[in-house]
Amino acid sequence: MDKRRGLLLLIALLAVTSILIFRTNGASNLPPLTNLAPGTDLRIQQNVDVNIVLVGFNGLVSPADILGQGILPHWNGVPKANGQGTFIGQRFDFHYNVIAAPQWFDDALFPFLRKIAQPQIPIPIFQGL
Questions:
Q1: Distance between the two ends of the chain, CA-based, in angstroms?
Q2: CB < 8 Å & 24+ apart, contacts of 106-109
Q3: Where are the alpha helices (DSSP H) in the chain?
Q4: How many CB atoms lie within 10 A of CB 100?
Q5: Is the pTM of this model over 0.70?
Q6: What contacts 52, CB < 8 A, 6 or more positions away?
Q7: 127: which of 10, 22, 68, 79 lies 20 to 30 Å off by Cα?
Q8: For the segment 43-73, what is each residue's pLDDT rounded down to a tens digit?
């Protein structure tokens, strides 16, 4: 009887030890949380490269004009679910690369568009328009 108790105690001790060892080893291999911090607000920020190609302006607008006027937003948040305001916790920072298409591209594109264009019936956007 004492041998059985000793064997049962030894098996229970080995089972508890193996569970504790696997739990600590498994948890230590996980990467640290980067976006979620319990008890604080969510913060996700992403840099977005935006390419803008100016087609058909014939030099009337240059990339420097577009960048200099400040009409392009530098960042954007995600709209709130209720539609009122912007959730800043998820933010996109925009980095613009503005170039003008070469003249040969304009010269080739617009005749091609005229060639393949087909008349379409107007699509009403709002009732009565």
A1: 95
A2: 106/55, 106/56, 106/58, 109/55, 109/56
A3: 2-28, 63-69, 103-116
A4: 19
A5: no
A6: 63, 66, 96, 97, 98, 99
A7: 79
A8: 778 899 999 999 998 889 889 998 998 888 8
